[in-house]
Write a structure and sequence with these properties.
Layout (H helix, E strand, L loop, with lengths): L1 E6 L3 H12 L4 E7 L2 H10 L4 E4 L8 H10 L5 E6 L4 H9 L4 E4 L4 H20 L5 H8 L16 H12 L6 E2 H8 L3 H13 L3 E6 L7 E6 L5 H4 L3
Parallel strand pairs: 1-2, 1-3, 3-4, 4-5
Antiparallel strand pairs: 6-8, 7-8
């Protein structure tokens, strides 16, 4: 469960945020603080992953609180939930590493979307030590990826996907054109086009293996298993 601290001086707004949080799977409320100083005390003694933070509060403002925990090196994520819509507040919050910024008033769907995106990000980061560029773009940075790339004439997207699936299953073991053609169910001539294409993309490495007599056999090996290199052509 993701441990959450709500920092909000308005009891009614804090209760709304608490109810919204309870409707979103994967989160557990640790405490509600009505000031920045109280929030700092809670973080010092409790396990907190995420703070839902207001900016306008008596005493220490939300931005002052955020700056203080960053200077202290505390690894706590923050979603700002505030009526402050001025450029300066937004810019400073983002510079301090806020993962999202919600302007009051807002609907449950907006907070739910923010919490859901954060939850999926945490799950992905906890599950994977190494991320592909595609996962980073789509699931963490939420960037729109470039339009689907064009394949060279004579190559088919669906066939390329089948070829890639078989190559990924080799686990880096060497294979010949004939091996892969049989596995996918296309001719050797057609398969050679796909293997040459993937070699140019830096996915495969090819080398000639010479026997006692006759022509060499070309062996391929997957040297870059990042699916994003191929998926952009699907």
């Amino acid at each position: 469960m993701i441990k959450v601290l709500i920092v909000e001086d308005d009891p009614m707004v804090a209760e709304f945020n608490r109810r919204y949080l309870a409707r979103t799977e994967g989160f557990e409320l640790v405490a509600v603080a009505s000031s920045g100083d109280e929030a700092l005390d809670i973080i010092a003694r409790a396990n907190v992953d995420l703070v839902l933070l207001d900016i306008f509060m008596p005493g220490k403002t939300g931005l002052e609180f955020l700056g203080e925990i960053r200077r202290a090196g505390r690894g706590v994520d923050v979603i700002v939930v505030t009526a402050a819509a001025d450029r300066g507040s937004i810019q400073q919050a983002l510079q301090y590493g806020a993962v999202d910024y919600l302007i009051k008033p807002f609907e449950f769907e907006r907070l739910n979307a923010s919490l859901t995106a954060y939850r999926e990000r945490i799950r992905l980061m906890r599950r994977s030590d190494v991320l592909s560029q595609a996962d980073l773009d789509r699931r963490i940075l939420h960037k729109d990826l470039p339009a689907r790339a064009e394949l060279p004439k004579g190559l088919d997207r669906n066939t390329l996907r089948r070829v890639w699936t078989r190559i990924a299953a080799t686990g880096g073991a060497a294979f010949s054109t004939g091996d892969m053609a049989s596995a996918v169910g296309i001719s050797r001539v057609s398969m050679r086009k796909y293997l040459d294409f993937l070699t140019r993309q830096g996915v495969l490495h090819v080398e000639a293996v010479y026997g006692a007599v006759g022509r060499p056999v070309y062996k391929y090996r997957c040297v870059n298993a990042d699916e994003a290199l191929v998926a952009r052509y699907w």
